[in-house]
Design a protein that fits this description.
It contains four helices and eight strands, in the order βββββαβββααα. It is α+β, with helices and mostly antiparallel strands and 155 residues long. The longest helix is centred in the C-terminal third of the chain and has 15 residues, at 112-126. The protein is globular, with a radius of gyration of 15 Å.
Length: 155
């Protein structure tokens, strides 16, 4: 039975000096993003953020601070998933990165120049200059992440 979208999502920003932790999604929607996921019935967005961070990259949360929240139109692979209410957090983590082999293709640190290059690829995809097949093989930022990164002035 397909999962139903709960329209609530968290994203976690983890900076290491001038580099941001990004994952490349192993499942739709393809692209690079901060660790993120649905709230899925957790009691709070903060609990969901800690759970998703542990699931996707194996990190624990030392501190959590809300950066921004709001609704974005963005598709997910779940039934009815056409929009989400997001809460994005700044996280101070502990532990070592151990990415989910099921949900991610890779996890790593990206500087602003690299993020800007991923955003350029996203713009090309958005305007039809990159095929779905090529996007899946070599994506840019996940579409909604590109919007959030612009809003938060990451690039």
């Amino acid at each position: 039975m397909p999962k139903i979208c709960d329209h609530t999502t968290v994203g976690m920003f983890i900076w290491n000096e001038d580099r941001l932790l990004l994952i490349e999604r192993g499942k739709r929607p393809y692209g690079y993003a901060v660790p993120a996921g649905h709230v899925d019935g957790d009691a709070t967005f903060e609990i969901a953020a800690k759970r998703e961070l542990k699931e996707e990259v194996g990190l624990d949360t030392e501190s959590i601070e809300l950066l921004v929240e709001g609704r974005k139109e963005n598709k997910c692979r779940r039934e009815g998933g056409t929009w989400h209410y997001w809460k994005l957090y700044k996280i101070i983590p502990s532990g070592n990165i151990s990415r989910s082999l099921d949900e991610t293709k890779r996890a790593g640190w990206y500087d602003r120049t690299q993020i800007q290059e991923l955003a350029r690829r996203t713009e090309e995809y958005k305007f039809g200059k990159v095929s779905e097949e090529d996007w899946e093989k070599s994506p840019g930022l996940e579409l909604v992440m590109c919007e959030w990164f612009k809003e938060l002035k990451v690039f």
